[in-house]
Structure formats: structure tokens, C-alpha cells
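Customer ticket, subject: "Can you confirm the structure for DUF2796 domain-containing protein?"

Message body: Hello, I'm evaluating your service for our small team and ran a test protein. I'd like someone to confirm that this is what the system normally returns, since I don't have a reference to compare against.
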Amino acid sequence: MNRLPCLFIASVCLWPLSAAAGEPAAHVHGAASLLVAIDGKNLTLNLESPLNNLVGFEHTPRTEKQKAAVRAMAERLNQPASLFIASPVAACTPLSVKLESPVLEPTKPAGDGHADLDGEFVFRCEHPEALRALEVGLFQAFPRLQRVDAQVAGPRGQSAVRLSPQQRNIAW
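Agent reply: Thanks for trying us out. I re-ran your input and got the following:
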């Protein structure tokens, strides 16, 4: 099944919720956005964050320490089961991860401006009817992150919530 139409519909449906969640401006240090779409057995998470939240800088890595920070970020994000914990009864397992950022592509310099990371995390849930919540572990993995504006679209409707290091759970 082609996920593109479902994700497009979810994005269009969630657009009005951005104001309710206090969506961050295009690029706000300390803030990220997370779109959660539940479609059949698939749980799809789309994360957008300034690189500063994840590695502490936004330019092309110049030093070995900065290159190591980029590798560590990619390694953490490529283990989505430790960052996004769905309702255990739903039995969700990671299916795919896609990460896009100029610092991950050596042929495309990030420059010295404001650079982001876009991530797509897809989980397959054996019991999607039991999927009622998601714990977001990004704050522990990336301490510079202070808030995540999350929007959810699924069979139970739409919702929006602002997450913080103290409030890491989304329930629907």
C-alpha cells in the first residue's frame, strides 16, 4: 500500500492543529515538532528539529568531535524503539527509519546557517487497536531539546499536545 496518500491526508488534517499545539516557528532552538499518524497497522512518526537540539551546532561538522556528535546522533535516531515507546500491548516494532539532514550527506555542505534534521520512523503494530499512547524519549537522548509540539491523527481523531522533559507522554 502506498503510504504517500495517507501521510498527505494526515498532514492536511493536522495542519489546523499546529496553532493549538503552539507549533514552533520554522526554526526554534530547543523546540521540535512531531507528527504521529496511525494508519492500519502502521504507526508513522515524522520528526523535525533544528540540528542544534541534537548535536549542538548547525554547520558542516569541522572537528572530529563534531563529526563524532553527528555519528552519535544518527546512531541514536536509528534505534527508534528506544526513543519512541508505544503502548506495549500494541506490540509495535520498528519497520524503517529515514533521516535527512545536510550533516548526514558529506556531498551537501550544511553551510553556516540554520540546518534541521527531518526523520521518519515507521513502526508496524500487531495490535493497532490497543495503541493508545506513545512515550517520547527524545529529551533523555538529546538534552538540548526542551519541547516537542506533537500532533496525532488516527482512527480516534486528532489531537495536539506540547511535550517537555517533565511531560513525555502522548495519549489518545
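A couple of notes from the result: Residues 147 and 164 are 5 Å apart (CA to CA). The longest helix spans residues 64-77. Feel free to reply with more questions.
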